[in-house]
Hints:
Distance between the termini: 72 Å
CATH architecture of the largest domain: 3-Layer(aba) Sandwich
CATH superfamily of the largest domain: Aldehyde Dehydrogenase, Chain A, domain 1
Radius of gyration: 24 Å
Largest sheet: 7 strands, mixed
Low-confidence stretches: none
CATH topology of the largest domain: Aldehyde Dehydrogenase, Chain A, domain 1
Helix content: 25-40%
Bound molecules: nicotinamide-adenine-dinucleotide
Strand order of the largest sheet: 12-15-16-11-10-18-19
Structural class: alpha/beta
Mean pLDDT: 96
Amino acid sequence: MTDGTDRFASTNPARPAEVVGHFAVARATDVDTAVARAAAAQRDWAKVTVPARAEMIAAIGAVLAQRKAALAELVSREAGKILVEAGGDVQEAIDMAAYIAGQGRAAWGTVHPCEMPSKIGFTMRQPVGVVGMITPWNFPVAIPSWKIFPALLAGNGVVIKPSELAPACCDAFVQACIDAGVPEGLVNVVHGFGDAGGALTVHPGVRAVSFTGSVPTGRRVAAAAMEVGPKLVSLELGGKNAMIVMPDADLDLVVEGALFGAFGTSGQRCTSTSRLVVHRDVAGELVDLLAARAAKLVLGDPLSPSTDVGPVIDRPSLDRIASMVERASAEGNEIVVGGEPVTVDGCDGGAFFAPTIVRGATRSSYIARNEVFGPVLTVLEIGSLDDAIDTVNDCDYGLSASIYTSDVNGALRAVHEIDTGIVYVNAPTIGAEIHLPFGGTKFTGNGYREAGSRGLEQFSETKSVYIDYSGKLHKAQIDNRESIA
Ligand code: NAD
Protein backbone atom coordinates (compact mmCIF):
# COMPACT_ATOMS: atom_id res chain seq x y z
CA MET A 1 0.00 0.00 0.00
CA THR A 2 1.52 3.39 -0.97
CA ASP A 3 0.83 6.51 1.05
CA GLY A 4 1.52 8.86 -1.85
CA THR A 5 5.15 9.36 -0.82
CA ASP A 6 8.23 7.36 -1.68
CA ARG A 7 7.42 4.95 1.15
CA PHE A 8 4.95 2.11 1.36
CA ALA A 9 3.46 0.06 4.17
CA SER A 10 3.28 -3.69 4.50
CA THR A 11 0.19 -4.82 6.39
CA ASN A 12 -1.23 -7.95 7.98
CA PRO A 13 -3.65 -9.56 5.49
CA ALA A 14 -5.79 -10.80 8.38
CA ARG A 15 -6.10 -7.27 9.82
CA PRO A 16 -5.03 -4.72 7.20
CA ALA A 17 -5.08 -1.88 9.72
CA GLU A 18 -2.10 -3.54 11.41
CA VAL A 19 1.08 -2.24 9.79
CA VAL A 20 4.00 -4.67 9.76
CA GLY A 21 6.50 -2.10 8.54
CA HIS A 22 7.26 0.88 6.31
CA PHE A 23 9.72 0.63 3.45
CA ALA A 24 11.34 3.07 1.06
CA VAL A 25 10.55 2.61 -2.62
CA ALA A 26 13.86 2.17 -4.41
CA ARG A 27 14.54 4.66 -7.19
CA ALA A 28 16.74 3.81 -10.16
CA THR A 29 19.69 5.45 -8.35
CA ASP A 30 19.15 3.18 -5.33
CA VAL A 31 19.27 0.17 -7.63
CA ASP A 32 22.52 1.55 -9.11
CA THR A 33 24.00 1.85 -5.61
CA ALA A 34 22.94 -1.67 -4.62
CA VAL A 35 24.36 -3.21 -7.81
CA ALA A 36 27.64 -1.31 -7.37
CA ARG A 37 27.94 -2.54 -3.76
CA ALA A 38 27.23 -6.11 -4.80
CA ALA A 39 29.75 -5.91 -7.66
CA ALA A 40 32.49 -4.55 -5.40
CA ALA A 41 31.91 -7.20 -2.72
CA GLN A 42 31.62 -9.97 -5.31
CA ARG A 43 35.15 -9.42 -6.59
CA ASP A 44 36.59 -10.54 -3.24
CA TRP A 45 33.91 -13.18 -2.61
CA ALA A 46 34.76 -14.93 -5.87
CA LYS A 47 38.29 -15.46 -4.50
CA VAL A 48 36.98 -17.25 -1.39
CA THR A 49 37.22 -21.03 -1.75
CA VAL A 50 33.98 -22.86 -2.37
CA PRO A 51 34.14 -24.84 0.94
CA ALA A 52 34.67 -21.56 2.80
CA ARG A 53 31.65 -20.04 1.04
CA ALA A 54 29.71 -23.15 2.05
CA GLU A 55 30.67 -22.63 5.70
CA MET A 56 29.22 -19.13 5.55
CA ILE A 57 25.95 -20.54 4.24
CA ALA A 58 25.91 -23.14 7.04
CA ALA A 59 26.39 -20.27 9.51
CA ILE A 60 23.38 -18.47 8.04
CA GLY A 61 21.38 -21.67 8.44
CA ALA A 62 22.32 -21.76 12.12
CA VAL A 63 21.12 -18.17 12.62
CA LEU A 64 17.85 -18.97 10.85
CA ALA A 65 17.37 -22.02 13.07
CA GLN A 66 17.89 -19.91 16.20
CA ARG A 67 15.33 -17.38 14.96
CA LYS A 68 12.84 -19.87 13.53
CA ALA A 69 9.97 -19.08 15.89
CA ALA A 70 10.27 -15.30 15.47
CA LEU A 71 10.62 -15.57 11.70
CA ALA A 72 7.62 -17.88 11.47
CA GLU A 73 5.53 -15.39 13.40
CA LEU A 74 6.64 -12.63 11.02
CA VAL A 75 5.73 -14.78 7.98
CA SER A 76 2.35 -15.40 9.55
CA ARG A 77 1.73 -11.71 10.23
CA GLU A 78 2.94 -10.44 6.88
CA ALA A 79 1.95 -13.23 4.45
CA GLY A 80 -1.09 -14.58 6.33
CA LYS A 81 0.13 -18.18 6.57
CA ILE A 82 -1.09 -20.22 9.50
CA LEU A 83 1.72 -20.62 12.01
CA VAL A 84 2.64 -24.25 11.22
CA GLU A 85 2.91 -23.45 7.52
CA ALA A 86 4.92 -20.32 8.29
CA GLY A 87 7.29 -22.53 10.28
CA GLY A 88 7.58 -24.80 7.24
CA ASP A 89 8.52 -21.78 5.12
CA VAL A 90 11.41 -20.99 7.47
CA GLN A 91 12.39 -24.66 7.81
CA GLU A 92 12.74 -24.86 4.04
CA ALA A 93 15.36 -22.11 4.21
CA ILE A 94 17.18 -23.93 7.02
CA ASP A 95 17.14 -27.15 4.97
CA MET A 96 18.33 -25.25 1.93
CA ALA A 97 21.30 -23.88 3.88
CA ALA A 98 22.27 -27.44 4.90
CA TYR A 99 21.91 -28.75 1.38
CA ILE A 100 23.80 -25.92 -0.33
CA ALA A 101 26.52 -25.98 2.33
CA GLY A 102 26.98 -29.68 1.53
CA GLN A 103 27.29 -28.90 -2.16
CA GLY A 104 30.32 -26.80 -1.30
CA ARG A 105 32.25 -30.02 -0.85
CA ALA A 106 30.60 -31.94 -3.69
CA ALA A 107 31.78 -32.24 -7.28
CA TRP A 108 32.05 -28.87 -9.01
CA GLY A 109 32.15 -30.29 -12.52
CA THR A 110 32.74 -33.45 -14.53
CA VAL A 111 35.83 -35.09 -16.05
CA HIS A 112 35.71 -36.54 -19.57
CA PRO A 113 37.90 -38.73 -21.73
CA CYS A 114 39.14 -36.98 -24.88
CA GLU A 115 39.30 -38.15 -28.49
CA MET A 116 43.09 -38.00 -28.53
CA PRO A 117 45.64 -39.59 -26.19
CA SER A 118 47.39 -37.54 -23.48
CA LYS A 119 44.50 -35.15 -23.23
CA ILE A 120 41.68 -34.72 -20.68
CA GLY A 121 38.64 -32.53 -20.52
CA PHE A 122 36.75 -31.28 -17.49
CA THR A 123 34.08 -28.77 -16.63
CA MET A 124 34.04 -26.22 -13.86
CA ARG A 125 31.67 -23.52 -12.66
CA GLN A 126 32.38 -19.83 -12.66
CA PRO A 127 30.32 -17.09 -11.04
CA VAL A 128 28.18 -14.85 -13.21
CA GLY A 129 28.86 -11.71 -11.14
CA VAL A 130 25.85 -9.85 -9.74
CA VAL A 131 22.50 -11.68 -9.71
CA GLY A 132 19.28 -9.65 -9.63
CA MET A 133 16.50 -11.54 -7.89
CA ILE A 134 12.80 -10.72 -8.00
CA THR A 135 10.58 -12.73 -5.69
CA PRO A 136 6.88 -13.21 -4.90
CA TRP A 137 5.27 -12.88 -1.50
CA ASN A 138 4.02 -16.44 -0.95
CA PHE A 139 7.23 -18.09 0.31
CA PRO A 140 8.83 -14.94 1.64
CA VAL A 141 11.70 -16.69 3.46
CA ALA A 142 12.03 -19.95 1.52
CA ILE A 143 12.21 -18.44 -1.98
CA PRO A 144 14.97 -15.93 -1.13
CA SER A 145 16.91 -18.89 0.30
CA TRP A 146 16.44 -20.97 -2.90
CA LYS A 147 18.07 -18.14 -4.79
CA ILE A 148 20.52 -16.46 -2.41
CA PHE A 149 22.26 -19.59 -1.05
CA PRO A 150 23.16 -21.16 -4.41
CA ALA A 151 24.05 -17.74 -5.82
CA LEU A 152 26.47 -17.17 -2.94
CA LEU A 153 27.95 -20.65 -3.19
CA ALA A 154 28.62 -20.02 -6.86
CA GLY A 155 30.55 -16.87 -5.92
CA ASN A 156 28.08 -14.15 -6.85
CA GLY A 157 26.89 -10.89 -5.36
CA VAL A 158 23.15 -10.41 -4.87
CA VAL A 159 20.54 -7.68 -5.19
CA ILE A 160 17.05 -8.89 -4.31
CA LYS A 161 13.77 -7.07 -4.91
CA PRO A 162 11.19 -8.91 -2.79
CA SER A 163 7.47 -8.59 -3.22
CA GLU A 164 5.98 -5.35 -1.95
CA LEU A 165 3.53 -7.59 -0.07
CA ALA A 166 6.19 -9.27 2.11
CA PRO A 167 9.19 -6.93 2.39
CA ALA A 168 9.75 -7.40 6.15
CA CYS A 169 10.28 -11.15 5.74
CA CYS A 170 12.99 -10.58 3.14
CA ASP A 171 14.67 -7.95 5.32
CA ALA A 172 14.67 -10.42 8.24
CA PHE A 173 16.18 -13.12 6.03
CA VAL A 174 18.92 -10.81 4.75
CA GLN A 175 19.58 -9.61 8.30
CA ALA A 176 20.22 -13.24 9.25
CA CYS A 177 22.78 -13.41 6.41
CA ILE A 178 24.49 -10.24 7.66
CA ASP A 179 24.45 -11.37 11.29
CA ALA A 180 26.03 -14.68 10.28
CA GLY A 181 28.93 -12.72 8.79
CA VAL A 182 28.23 -12.36 5.08
CA PRO A 183 30.70 -9.76 3.76
CA GLU A 184 29.43 -6.21 3.67
CA GLY A 185 27.67 -5.29 0.46
CA LEU A 186 27.46 -8.84 -0.88
CA VAL A 187 23.69 -9.24 -0.32
CA ASN A 188 21.51 -6.17 -0.88
CA VAL A 189 17.79 -5.54 -0.79
CA VAL A 190 15.87 -2.97 -2.80
CA HIS A 191 12.19 -2.53 -2.07
CA GLY A 192 9.28 -1.41 -4.16
CA PHE A 193 6.94 -2.41 -6.93
CA GLY A 194 7.25 -3.23 -10.62
CA ASP A 195 9.38 -0.14 -11.34
CA ALA A 196 12.07 -1.24 -8.89
CA GLY A 197 11.96 -4.79 -10.26
CA GLY A 198 12.13 -3.40 -13.78
CA ALA A 199 15.16 -1.22 -12.99
CA LEU A 200 16.95 -4.24 -11.53
CA THR A 201 16.03 -6.40 -14.52
CA VAL A 202 17.58 -4.10 -17.09
CA HIS A 203 20.54 -2.92 -15.02
CA PRO A 204 23.75 -3.34 -17.05
CA GLY A 205 25.64 -4.51 -13.95
CA VAL A 206 23.26 -7.45 -13.43
CA ARG A 207 24.43 -10.52 -15.35
CA ALA A 208 21.67 -12.90 -14.27
CA VAL A 209 18.03 -12.26 -13.43
CA SER A 210 16.31 -14.87 -11.30
CA PHE A 211 12.56 -14.30 -11.27
CA THR A 212 9.77 -16.10 -9.45
CA GLY A 213 6.20 -14.87 -9.82
CA SER A 214 3.25 -14.89 -12.19
CA VAL A 215 3.35 -15.65 -15.90
CA PRO A 216 2.42 -12.11 -17.04
CA THR A 217 5.16 -10.52 -14.94
CA GLY A 218 7.65 -13.21 -15.93
CA ARG A 219 7.01 -12.50 -19.59
CA ARG A 220 7.67 -8.79 -19.05
CA VAL A 221 10.84 -9.50 -17.08
CA ALA A 222 12.19 -11.92 -19.69
CA ALA A 223 11.45 -9.57 -22.58
CA ALA A 224 12.99 -6.56 -20.84
CA ALA A 225 16.11 -8.50 -19.78
CA MET A 226 16.73 -9.96 -23.22
CA GLU A 227 16.18 -6.58 -24.87
CA VAL A 228 19.20 -5.15 -23.03
CA GLY A 229 21.14 -8.48 -22.48
CA PRO A 230 23.34 -10.39 -22.37
CA LYS A 231 21.82 -11.92 -19.25
CA LEU A 232 20.89 -15.31 -17.93
CA VAL A 233 17.18 -15.18 -17.18
CA SER A 234 15.52 -17.87 -15.12
CA LEU A 235 11.77 -17.92 -14.68
CA GLU A 236 9.74 -19.85 -12.10
CA LEU A 237 6.12 -19.05 -12.80
CA GLY A 238 2.57 -20.17 -12.11
CA GLY A 239 0.82 -23.51 -12.03
CA LYS A 240 -2.57 -25.15 -12.56
CA ASN A 241 -1.77 -28.31 -10.69
CA ALA A 242 -3.91 -31.42 -11.02
CA MET A 243 -4.55 -34.40 -8.78
CA ILE A 244 -5.75 -37.57 -10.53
CA VAL A 245 -7.96 -39.89 -8.49
CA MET A 246 -8.56 -43.38 -9.88
CA PRO A 247 -11.36 -45.67 -8.61
CA ASP A 248 -8.86 -47.91 -6.77
CA ALA A 249 -7.49 -45.01 -4.71
CA ASP A 250 -7.69 -44.90 -0.91
CA LEU A 251 -10.39 -42.21 -0.69
CA ASP A 252 -9.61 -41.33 2.94
CA LEU A 253 -6.04 -40.58 1.92
CA VAL A 254 -7.30 -38.61 -1.09
CA VAL A 255 -9.53 -36.46 1.11
CA GLU A 256 -6.64 -35.56 3.45
CA GLY A 257 -4.35 -34.86 0.49
CA ALA A 258 -6.87 -32.81 -1.48
CA LEU A 259 -7.79 -30.65 1.53
CA PHE A 260 -4.13 -29.94 2.27
CA GLY A 261 -3.21 -29.48 -1.41
CA ALA A 262 -6.12 -27.23 -2.33
CA PHE A 263 -6.76 -25.23 0.83
CA GLY A 264 -3.38 -25.24 2.60
CA THR A 265 -1.83 -21.75 2.45
CA SER A 266 -5.32 -20.73 1.27
CA GLY A 267 -4.50 -22.22 -2.13
CA GLN A 268 -1.70 -19.71 -2.66
CA ARG A 269 1.21 -22.04 -3.34
CA CYS A 270 2.48 -22.24 -6.89
CA THR A 271 1.96 -26.00 -6.48
CA SER A 272 -1.49 -25.81 -4.86
CA THR A 273 -3.92 -28.47 -6.05
CA SER A 274 -6.23 -26.59 -8.36
CA ARG A 275 -7.81 -29.35 -10.49
CA LEU A 276 -9.25 -32.60 -9.14
CA VAL A 277 -9.22 -34.99 -12.09
CA VAL A 278 -11.39 -37.74 -10.70
CA HIS A 279 -12.77 -40.94 -12.20
CA ARG A 280 -16.54 -40.70 -12.58
CA ASP A 281 -17.05 -43.95 -10.62
CA VAL A 282 -15.88 -42.25 -7.41
CA ALA A 283 -16.46 -38.57 -8.22
CA GLY A 284 -19.82 -38.23 -6.43
CA GLU A 285 -18.67 -39.92 -3.23
CA LEU A 286 -15.36 -38.04 -3.18
CA VAL A 287 -16.87 -34.61 -3.79
CA ASP A 288 -19.42 -35.21 -1.00
CA LEU A 289 -16.64 -36.22 1.42
CA LEU A 290 -14.50 -33.25 0.46
CA ALA A 291 -17.33 -30.75 0.63
CA ALA A 292 -18.31 -31.92 4.11
CA ARG A 293 -14.74 -31.51 5.34
CA ALA A 294 -14.13 -28.21 3.50
CA ALA A 295 -17.23 -26.69 5.09
CA LYS A 296 -15.79 -27.41 8.54
CA LEU A 297 -12.38 -25.82 7.98
CA VAL A 298 -11.89 -22.95 10.42
CA LEU A 299 -10.98 -19.62 8.84
CA GLY A 300 -9.30 -17.22 11.18
CA ASP A 301 -6.27 -15.37 12.46
CA PRO A 302 -3.28 -17.30 11.11
CA LEU A 303 -1.51 -16.84 14.46
CA SER A 304 -4.25 -18.76 16.27
CA PRO A 305 -3.53 -22.49 16.66
CA SER A 306 -7.19 -23.32 15.99
CA THR A 307 -7.12 -21.79 12.49
CA ASP A 308 -7.05 -24.14 9.50
CA VAL A 309 -7.16 -21.55 6.71
CA GLY A 310 -5.81 -18.01 6.88
CA PRO A 311 -6.59 -15.02 4.67
CA VAL A 312 -5.55 -14.56 1.08
CA ILE A 313 -2.85 -11.97 0.67
CA ASP A 314 -4.91 -8.84 -0.01
CA ARG A 315 -8.18 -7.35 -1.18
CA PRO A 316 -7.30 -7.34 -4.92
CA SER A 317 -6.56 -11.09 -4.65
CA LEU A 318 -9.86 -11.66 -2.86
CA ASP A 319 -11.70 -9.76 -5.60
CA ARG A 320 -9.91 -11.71 -8.36
CA ILE A 321 -10.76 -15.06 -6.73
CA ALA A 322 -14.40 -14.03 -6.20
CA SER A 323 -14.75 -12.90 -9.80
CA MET A 324 -13.27 -16.16 -11.13
CA VAL A 325 -15.74 -18.17 -9.05
CA GLU A 326 -18.61 -15.92 -10.18
CA ARG A 327 -17.60 -16.50 -13.79
CA ALA A 328 -17.48 -20.27 -13.20
CA SER A 329 -20.98 -20.10 -11.76
CA ALA A 330 -22.25 -17.92 -14.63
CA GLU A 331 -20.83 -20.46 -17.08
CA GLY A 332 -23.04 -23.15 -15.53
CA ASN A 333 -20.69 -24.79 -13.00
CA GLU A 334 -21.99 -25.80 -9.61
CA ILE A 335 -20.40 -24.21 -6.55
CA VAL A 336 -20.57 -27.22 -4.23
CA VAL A 337 -19.23 -25.46 -1.15
CA GLY A 338 -17.85 -22.00 -0.32
CA GLY A 339 -17.77 -19.59 -3.22
CA GLU A 340 -17.63 -16.30 -1.41
CA PRO A 341 -15.64 -14.01 0.88
CA VAL A 342 -16.05 -14.59 4.61
CA THR A 343 -16.00 -12.20 7.56
CA VAL A 344 -13.95 -13.33 10.55
CA ASP A 345 -14.47 -11.97 14.08
CA GLY A 346 -11.42 -10.09 15.31
CA CYS A 347 -10.02 -9.77 11.78
CA ASP A 348 -11.56 -6.53 10.53
CA GLY A 349 -11.14 -6.11 6.80
CA GLY A 350 -9.25 -9.43 6.52
CA ALA A 351 -9.19 -10.95 3.05
CA PHE A 352 -10.82 -14.32 3.77
CA PHE A 353 -12.32 -16.54 1.08
CA ALA A 354 -14.22 -19.71 1.91
CA PRO A 355 -12.66 -23.00 0.73
CA THR A 356 -14.51 -23.63 -2.52
CA ILE A 357 -15.24 -26.63 -4.71
CA VAL A 358 -16.46 -26.10 -8.28
CA ARG A 359 -18.09 -29.01 -10.12
CA GLY A 360 -19.23 -29.43 -13.70
CA ALA A 361 -16.22 -27.90 -15.43
CA THR A 362 -14.75 -29.26 -18.63
CA ARG A 363 -11.14 -28.99 -19.78
CA SER A 364 -11.97 -25.83 -21.72
CA SER A 365 -13.73 -24.03 -18.84
CA TYR A 366 -12.08 -20.79 -17.79
CA ILE A 367 -11.84 -21.96 -14.17
CA ALA A 368 -10.14 -25.18 -15.30
CA ARG A 369 -7.46 -23.44 -17.37
CA ASN A 370 -6.41 -20.37 -15.39
CA GLU A 371 -4.45 -20.08 -12.16
CA VAL A 372 -6.78 -18.94 -9.35
CA PHE A 373 -4.13 -18.67 -6.61
CA GLY A 374 -6.79 -19.02 -3.93
CA PRO A 375 -8.70 -21.76 -2.09
CA VAL A 376 -10.64 -23.05 -5.09
CA LEU A 377 -10.65 -26.66 -6.30
CA THR A 378 -12.19 -27.43 -9.68
CA VAL A 379 -13.48 -30.95 -10.29
CA LEU A 380 -13.03 -32.53 -13.73
CA GLU A 381 -14.52 -35.99 -14.27
CA ILE A 382 -12.71 -38.56 -16.41
CA GLY A 383 -13.40 -42.14 -17.48
CA SER A 384 -9.96 -43.74 -17.82
CA LEU A 385 -6.30 -43.26 -17.01
CA ASP A 386 -5.62 -42.10 -20.59
CA ASP A 387 -8.38 -39.54 -20.27
CA ALA A 388 -6.93 -38.42 -16.92
CA ILE A 389 -3.41 -37.97 -18.28
CA ASP A 390 -4.69 -36.11 -21.35
CA THR A 391 -6.74 -33.84 -19.10
CA VAL A 392 -3.78 -33.07 -16.86
CA ASN A 393 -1.62 -32.29 -19.89
CA ASP A 394 -4.25 -30.15 -21.61
CA CYS A 395 -3.02 -27.07 -19.81
CA ASP A 396 -0.65 -24.17 -20.45
CA TYR A 397 1.16 -24.74 -17.16
CA GLY A 398 3.38 -27.66 -16.16
CA LEU A 399 4.48 -27.34 -12.54
CA SER A 400 3.09 -30.16 -10.39
CA ALA A 401 0.67 -33.09 -10.65
CA SER A 402 -0.24 -36.14 -8.62
CA ILE A 403 -2.03 -39.44 -8.94
CA TYR A 404 -3.83 -41.48 -6.29
CA THR A 405 -4.16 -45.14 -7.21
CA SER A 406 -3.21 -48.57 -5.87
CA ASP A 407 -2.25 -49.78 -9.36
CA VAL A 408 1.52 -49.55 -9.56
CA ASN A 409 1.57 -49.88 -13.34
CA GLY A 410 -0.95 -47.08 -13.76
CA ALA A 411 0.93 -44.88 -11.31
CA LEU A 412 4.21 -45.31 -13.15
CA ARG A 413 2.58 -44.73 -16.52
CA ALA A 414 1.21 -41.45 -15.18
CA VAL A 415 4.64 -40.52 -13.81
CA HIS A 416 6.06 -41.18 -17.26
CA GLU A 417 3.42 -39.45 -19.35
CA ILE A 418 2.42 -36.41 -17.32
CA ASP A 419 4.05 -33.27 -18.69
CA THR A 420 5.03 -31.43 -15.50
CA GLY A 421 8.26 -30.78 -13.63
CA ILE A 422 7.04 -32.52 -10.47
CA VAL A 423 4.80 -35.59 -10.04
CA TYR A 424 3.62 -37.19 -6.80
CA VAL A 425 2.11 -40.63 -6.28
CA ASN A 426 -0.44 -40.99 -3.48
CA ALA A 427 0.35 -37.49 -2.22
CA PRO A 428 -1.02 -34.05 -3.11
CA THR A 429 0.66 -31.67 -5.56
CA ILE A 430 2.45 -29.82 -2.76
CA GLY A 431 5.28 -30.96 -0.53
CA ALA A 432 8.48 -30.51 -2.54
CA GLU A 433 11.76 -31.13 -0.74
CA ILE A 434 14.74 -28.91 -1.44
CA HIS A 435 17.19 -31.65 -2.41
CA LEU A 436 15.20 -32.44 -5.57
CA PRO A 437 15.02 -30.00 -8.49
CA PHE A 438 11.97 -27.72 -8.43
CA GLY A 439 10.31 -26.15 -11.46
CA GLY A 440 8.04 -26.85 -14.36
CA THR A 441 7.40 -27.23 -18.05
CA LYS A 442 5.49 -25.06 -20.54
CA PHE A 443 4.56 -21.57 -19.26
CA THR A 444 5.69 -22.48 -15.74
CA GLY A 445 9.28 -21.71 -16.61
CA ASN A 446 12.03 -21.52 -19.16
CA GLY A 447 13.84 -24.76 -18.47
CA TYR A 448 15.81 -23.90 -15.35
CA ARG A 449 15.19 -25.60 -12.02
CA GLU A 450 15.67 -24.31 -8.49
CA ALA A 451 17.08 -26.32 -5.59
CA GLY A 452 18.40 -29.87 -5.88
CA SER A 453 21.22 -30.86 -8.16
CA ARG A 454 20.29 -28.21 -10.74
CA GLY A 455 19.90 -25.26 -8.37
CA LEU A 456 23.34 -23.85 -9.15
CA GLU A 457 22.83 -23.74 -12.91
CA GLN A 458 21.11 -20.40 -13.11
CA PHE A 459 23.79 -18.79 -10.93
CA SER A 460 26.92 -20.05 -12.62
CA GLU A 461 28.38 -20.46 -16.07
CA THR A 462 29.87 -23.80 -17.03
CA LYS A 463 33.37 -23.65 -18.44
CA SER A 464 34.82 -26.58 -20.42
CA VAL A 465 38.57 -26.99 -20.01
CA TYR A 466 40.88 -29.13 -22.20
CA ILE A 467 44.39 -30.07 -21.08
CA ASP A 468 46.75 -31.49 -23.65
CA TYR A 469 49.87 -33.08 -22.15
CA SER A 470 51.04 -34.83 -25.35
CA GLY A 471 53.41 -32.12 -26.49
CA LYS A 472 51.88 -32.38 -29.98
CA LEU A 473 49.23 -30.43 -31.87
CA HIS A 474 46.06 -32.50 -31.78
CA LYS A 475 43.23 -31.70 -34.16
CA ALA A 476 40.32 -33.41 -32.43
CA GLN A 477 38.00 -34.27 -35.31
CA ILE A 478 40.64 -34.26 -38.03
CA ASP A 479 43.65 -36.31 -36.90
CA ASN A 480 43.65 -40.07 -37.04
CA ARG A 481 43.80 -41.35 -33.42
CA GLU A 482 46.20 -44.19 -34.18
CA SER A 483 48.70 -42.11 -36.15
CA ILE A 484 48.96 -39.51 -33.41
CA ALA A 485 49.37 -41.88 -30.46
P1 NAD B 1 3.81 -11.21 -9.28
O1 NAD B 1 4.19 -11.65 -10.64
O2 NAD B 1 2.68 -10.27 -9.14
O3 NAD B 1 5.06 -10.46 -8.58
C1 NAD B 1 6.31 -11.08 -8.43
C2 NAD B 1 7.40 -10.03 -8.25
O4 NAD B 1 7.56 -9.30 -9.47
C3 NAD B 1 7.11 -9.00 -7.18
O5 NAD B 1 8.30 -8.75 -6.46
C4 NAD B 1 6.70 -7.78 -7.99
O6 NAD B 1 6.92 -6.54 -7.34
C5 NAD B 1 7.63 -7.91 -9.17
N1 NAD B 1 7.22 -7.18 -10.38
C6 NAD B 1 5.99 -6.79 -10.77
N2 NAD B 1 6.04 -6.19 -11.98
C7 NAD B 1 7.33 -6.22 -12.38
C8 NAD B 1 8.03 -5.77 -13.55
N3 NAD B 1 7.39 -5.18 -14.57
N4 NAD B 1 9.36 -5.98 -13.62
C9 NAD B 1 10.02 -6.60 -12.62
N5 NAD B 1 9.42 -7.04 -11.48
C10 NAD B 1 8.09 -6.86 -11.37
O7 NAD B 1 3.60 -12.52 -8.41
P2 NAD B 1 3.06 -12.68 -6.91
O8 NAD B 1 1.62 -12.34 -6.86
O9 NAD B 1 3.98 -12.01 -5.94
O10 NAD B 1 3.24 -14.26 -6.71
C11 NAD B 1 2.29 -15.18 -7.12
C12 NAD B 1 2.72 -15.87 -8.40
O11 NAD B 1 4.00 -16.46 -8.26
C13 NAD B 1 1.78 -17.03 -8.77
O12 NAD B 1 1.57 -17.04 -10.16
C14 NAD B 1 2.58 -18.26 -8.33
O13 NAD B 1 2.21 -19.44 -9.00
C15 NAD B 1 3.97 -17.83 -8.67
N6 NAD B 1 4.98 -18.59 -7.92
C16 NAD B 1 5.76 -19.46 -8.63
C17 NAD B 1 6.70 -20.23 -7.94
C18 NAD B 1 7.58 -21.21 -8.68
O14 NAD B 1 8.61 -21.60 -8.13
N7 NAD B 1 7.23 -21.66 -9.88
C19 NAD B 1 6.84 -20.09 -6.57
C20 NAD B 1 6.03 -19.18 -5.90
C21 NAD B 1 5.11 -18.43 -6.59
